[in-house]
Amino acid sequence: MPSRTPTDHSSRNRFRPGHHTAGGHLPEPCDTGDVLPLADRLFRWADARDWAGPDPYDGLTGPLGRLAGHRVLRQALLQAVKRSPLDLRPVLGIRPLRTATATGCAAGACARLSSSPLWRERALRLGRRTAAEQMTGRYAGLWRYEFDVQTRWSYYPASVPNLVATTFCADGCLDTGTLDDDAVRLLAHGLLEHLYNGTFFTYTPTSGVLVHNANLMGAALAARLARIGTLPGGLAERLAGAARSAVEVSLDGQRADGSWPYGRGPRLDWVDGFHTGYVLLRLEQAGTLLGMDVRTPLERGADHYLRNLFDGPLPLYFAGGRTRRDPNNDATAVRMAAWATERGFAAADFGCAVLAAVVGRYPGLGTGTPAEGSQGNGALWRSPRWSAAPLLDALTALHAVVAGGPRPSSPTAQRTAAAS
Predict the structure, then answer these.
(1) Residue 418 pLDDT class (50, 70, 90 cuts)
(2) Burial class (CB in 10 A: 0-12, 13-18, 19+), 351
(3) Residue 407 burial (C-beta neighbours within 10 Å; 0-12, 13-18, 19+)
(4) Contact 264, 209 (CB under 8 A)
(5) Region 260-269: what's the mean pLDDT?
(6) How confident is the model at residue 331 (pLDDT cuts 50, 70, 90)?
(7) Per the count of CB atoms within 10 A, which of 4, 154, 283, 372 is most buried?
(8) Secondary structure of the chain in the HEC alphabet?
(9) How confident is the model at residue 83 (pLDDT cuts 50, 70, 90)?
(10) First to last CA, the chain
């Protein structure tokens, strides 16, 4: 992608550390040398807890959740636990969870620093742990969430795989070289058989709903697998063909203003920060691996994202000004600020400015007052999957971009140049 694009001028002028809303004091941007120590501190904090903790969607894992047989009851219970200002988990018998999605995401984050023996050991340990959770039986080769989920558009139990978990876990394992050839083949077959409907990638095996970030995650993973070189030629061609089809579907779903709705459907038309970030990262990855020219939609999408999902360096949850502080959204904003800086969409110090704006709320970093007393469920800021792992991914990416750190590397040839 060219270093300067039609969106560069407005992005560079607007997205600078000193630009923030009047009356809202934000900390000064961090020094680039602070990023790697923060990543180390965060890793140690999560590792000391064995990567276990609360999760936004763990509300159905307790005894009461097993009694909620109706969709409305499941969603009400899940949302009550997720949004309560007080942590209801101890009262409801909901125990800390360790998820493969968290360890997979963290494994990939650590792999960026694999030139360091310490970080390489961390990456391999988490990668092996994640690989051990790969499903067997009917859905062999895929990964799942360790809890039942009820959303406004779908219900999927812990016994079935989903595309988001599969992508984060597979990427972490591929980044660390912890899947053997048989496991990679199982993953490729499972992805095509259970999570591809012939046109786009689906969130779960039983879903027919198009969710753009999940579809592009599937496309990027399929394109990555097709390039590994250890799969039979026919299987690699099927993966590449499916990936191209899926990318085209989501390109058709981009709106005139450059945004993507969460999904296709009347109740899925919102635009939020972290899902938009996933779309942009995976669109670029899939396009690069497939040799598809996605520069124009990517530039349009990045311009909309930077203009509508930040207030200066402070991330917004929803486009259009509606916001709430959320650890995954904030972490993804740091990751995307690093990406935007690297691609020339934002000023060079934008990533550190975004980090400085959000860093004080993460208890694992010890840099400010934890979010326990703030509005919303402070327990989510202690979540490995929703907080620690995505922030670790953001920190190692930011270090690689603005602190002159090493580019992503892996001890095996399974990693591709465009892997995120």
Answers:
(1) very low
(2) buried
(3) exposed
(4) yes
(5) 93
(6) very high
(7) 283
(8) CCCCCCCHHHHHHHCCCCCCCCCCCCCCCCCHHHHHHHHHHHHHHHHHCCCEECCCCCCCCCHHHHHCCCHHHHHHHHHHHHHCCCCCHHHHCCCCEECHHHHHHHHHHHHCCCCCHHHHHHHHHHHHHHHCCCCCHHHCCCCECCCCEECCCCEECCCCECHHHHHHHHHHHHHHCCCCHHHHHHHHHHHHHHCECCCCECCCCCCCCCEHHHHHHHHHHHHHHHCCCCCCHHHHHHHHHHHHHHHHHHHHCCCCCCCCCCECCCCCCCCEHHHHHHHHHHHHHHHHHHCCCCHHHHHHHHHHHHHHCEECCEECCECCCCCCCCHHHHHHHHHHHHHHHHHCCCCCCHHHHHHHHHHHHCCCCCCCCCHHHCCCCHHHHHCHHHHHHHHHHHHHHHHHHHCCCCCCCCCCCCCCCCCC
(9) confident
(10) 16
What are 33's two structure tokens? 């040398």
Residue 412 contacts residue 177 (beta carbons within 8 Å) = yes
Q: Distance between CA 247 and CA 397 in Å, rounded?
A: 24
